[in-house]
Write a structure and sequence with these properties.
With 316 residues, the protein is an alpha/beta fold. Helix content is 24%, strand content 30%. The chain has nine helices and twelve strands. Strands 2, 4, 5, 6, 7, 8, 9, 10, 11 and 12 form a ten-stranded mixed β-sheet that branches. A two-stranded antiparallel ribbon has the order 1-3. Strand 11 and strand 12 (293-303) form a beta hairpin. Helix 1 (11-19) packs across helix 2 (56-70). The longest helix is centred in the N-terminal third of the chain and has 15 residues, at 56-70. It is globular, with a radius of gyration of 21 Å.
Length: 316
């Protein structure tokens, strides 16, 4: 492999996906079932471009494709199917997969997202069906849950009902799907020490659409980093800085010796942030040392003090 590639072992990402929960819920949407028995994974290495061309969404598609291949009854028929009407691109179908038991074909849209809930941020001059969803903002400040949810539900999941899409699939000798499903998972981060249940209840419409069992974490601006000091010391936290290609499964990508070598104490973490030796925003895994290794106990984000208005990277 050339040096401009990342070689990622996605075994842990597959395990994370199997145990994950959706970010959202909706009575009229079919959600992909991740809680399925899998066969043993013998091929787990994926090659990806290094930053800045690395895209987390592309890695997640590889994870989902491998997940489908490891189930006992599903198989991928096609991926990333571009739908065009003349010179206009209408969209892309992430997956078509077949149920090998009954032969049914499903169109599957997938996304793994990481959003920070910003209670004080408002989106002016926008008429939103659920305005509170706009308060979930990507760490790079360019992505919002309301926009992603609207795009998925109002456009992506509706593509296969379009005669243009059906004609395109027929032209490609691909089967027409019997239904569409959504796999939208990831982690929602809330202000440190905030009660996420209270926040969700306080904001109109969130209880109806946010999945009650979604994965969650905390976030802090740099000026408030001392808020975690007491808990970090009392619970013997160490902090592992996670590159984007390890955002999905987090600390599971590292063995005990790597965590021992790479993790930081609170004092060391604060010093690196104060000296700006860490590029922000940064996702961190909080780990505890046990006699048989390390246990990941939480995820967090540290952001610039003026976030979400600070210019920074994307959440793709």
């Amino acid at each position: 492999m050339t040096t401009d590639r990342l070689i990622i072992d996605i075994n842990n990402d597959i395990d994370w996906l199997k145990a994950s929960q959706p970010l959202m819920r909706h009575s009229n949407i079919h959600f992909f079932n991740t809680h399925q028995p899998l066969t043993q994974n013998t091929q787990s290495l994926v090659s990806c471009g290094k930053p800045p061309i690395f895209r987390l969404g592309h890695l997640f598609e590889e994870v989902v494709d491998r997940f489908i291949s490891l189930t006992s009854k599903l198989e991928t028929v096609a991926r990333n199917i571009q739908i065009r009407n003349g010179k206009t691109t209408l969209g892309e179908l992430d997956f078509l997969y077949r149920n090998c038991i009954d032969g049914s074909i499903t169109h599957l849209e997938v996304a793994v997202k990481f959003y920070l809930f910003c209670p004080d941020d408002t989106c002016l001059n926008e008429a939103l069906p659920i305005p509170s969803l706009a308060k979930f903002i990507g760490p790079g400040s360019k992505d919002r849950l309301d926009k992603k949810w609207s795009r998925l539900t109002n456009h992506q999941l509706q593509l296969t009902a379009n005669p243009v899409t059906q004609a395109a699939l027929t032209a490609l000798d691909l089967p027409l799907p019997h239904k569409s499903e959504l796999l939208l998972t990831g982690i929602l981060f809330y202000p440190y020490q905030a009660d996420r249940f209270d926040l969700i209840k306080q904001h109109v419409g969130l209880e109806e659409v946010i999945h009650p069992d979604h994965q969650h974490g905390w976030w802090l601006p740099t000026k408030e980093i001392d808020q975690i000091k007491t808990q970090a010391l009392n619970e013997h936290w160490q902090f592992l800085l996670l590159p984007k290609h390890h955002w999905i499964a987090g600390a599971s990508h590292y063995d005990a010796q790597e965590i021992e070598d790479k993790s930081l104490s609170f004092t060391a973490l604060k010093a690196m942030i104060d000296k700006r030796h860490i590029a922000l925003p940064i996702m961190i895994a909080c780990v505890q040392k046990h006699k048989d290794g390390f246990k990941a106990v939480a995820r967090g984000f540290i952001v610039e003090d003026i976030w979400p208005r600070a210019p920074s990277g994307s959440n793709k």
